[in-house]
Specification:
Strands 1-3-2 form a 3-stranded mixed beta sheet, sandwiched between helices. The protein is elongated and about 45 Å long. α3 packs antiparallel against α4 and α4 packs across α5. β2 and β3 form a beta hairpin. The chain has 107 residues and is α+β, with helices and mostly antiparallel strands.
C-alpha cells in the first residue's frame, strides 16, 4: 500500500472516510474524532503519533513526533537521527545537534 499521513484536522477527514475505523490512530482528542460519526473509537490511542502499517497519525500538539513517525515509516532516517531530531526540536536539547550534523554529512 501507499503510506498515508495525517495530522490535526486531517485525521477528521480520514475518520469521515472510514479509514480509521479498524486501524490504530490518534488525533487531537478522541472526542474530536467522535464528532465525525466514525466507528473507530476502540482503536484510538492517546499517543503523540501512531504508526499502523501504512497509516501515520498525530494530533496538532505533536508536529515533531509526526515528522519522526513519517520519516521512520518511510525509512528515511535512522533511529539515532530521529531520536536526536526529537531531542533538539521537541525538548530543546542542544546536545543532539552534533548527531544531526553527523547524519547530514553522512547522507
Amino acid at each position: 500500500g501507499v503510506p498515508v499521513a495525517a495530522i490535526c484536522g486531517a485525521t477528521a477527514g480520514l475518520a469521515r472516510a472510514g479509514l480509521l475505523d479498524k486501524r490504530r490512530h490518534t488525533s487531537a482528542a478522541a472526542e474530536y474524532l467522535m464528532a465525525t460519526g466514525y466507528a473507530g473509537g476502540n482503536h484510538y490511542v492517546d499517543d503523540r503519533a501512531v504508526i499502523d502499517g501504512d497509516l501515520i497519525t498525530a494530533g496538532p500538539q505533536s508536529p515533531v513526533q509526526f515528522a519522526c513517525a513519517t520519516l521512520r515509516r518511510l525509512s528515511l532516517a535512522s533511529d539515532r537521527t530521529l531520536e536526536a531530531y526529537e531531542a533538539l526540536l521537541h525538548r530543546a536539547d542542544p546536545s543532539a545537534f552534533p548527531v544531526l550534523m553527523q547524519a547530514q554529512h553522512a547522507a
